[in-house]
């Protein structure tokens, strides 16, 4: 199933502009650095309100960055009218991220996109280029209603 309809839809959302914001990405300040079929690169800069009790970036923030990049990578590969939802998210945290550690970059890439299930993987690196976390996801794909 090769399609760029999902990719075009994401490009249209981005063209609306950051000032309008969109969902959790706008809330966290996630930016999209690159969009192509099956691959999305997102980034965010940690803020003090992203902290956990230990003074480092909360794992939920990093997980959301991963879920966003991997989900959008799946989205770029879907046909017109199809949608998806995350069924499973597995995150491995490799190192703690200090709140003042600088920008985090996440690359999400598809592994498999089928009619009902899609899988993707993601990697987050810190400002120093070191791996912070990596993940995999399984998404359920909902095909468009053809009326048949």
UniProtKB/TrEMBL annotation:
The keyword tRNA processing does not apply. SUPFAM superfamilies: Thioesterase/thiol ester dehydrase-isomerase. Keywords: Hydrolase. Residues 55-133 form the Thioesterase domain. Pfam families: 4HBT. GO terms for molecular function: hydrolase activity. Belongs to the thioesterase PaaI family. This is PaaI family thioesterase. It comes from Actinomadura chokoriensis.
């Amino acid at each position: 199933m090769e399609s760029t309809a999902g990719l075009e839809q994401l490009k249209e959302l981005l063209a609306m502009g950051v000032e309008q914001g969109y969902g959790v990405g706008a809330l966290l300040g996630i930016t999209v650095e690159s969009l192509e079929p099956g691959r999305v690169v997102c980034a965010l800069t940690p803020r003090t309100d992203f902290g956990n009790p230990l003074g480092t970036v909360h794992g939920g923030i990093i997980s959301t960055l991963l879920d966003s990049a991997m989900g959008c990578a799946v989205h770029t590969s879907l046909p017109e009218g199809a949608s998806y939802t995350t069924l499973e998210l597995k995150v491995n945290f490799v190192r703690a991220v200090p709140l003042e550690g600088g920008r985090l970059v996440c690359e999400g890439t598809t592994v498999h996109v089928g009619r009902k299930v899609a899988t993707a993987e993601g990697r987050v690196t810190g400002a120093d280029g070191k791996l912070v976390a990596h993940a995999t996801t399984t998404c359920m794909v909902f095909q468009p209603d053809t009326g048949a």
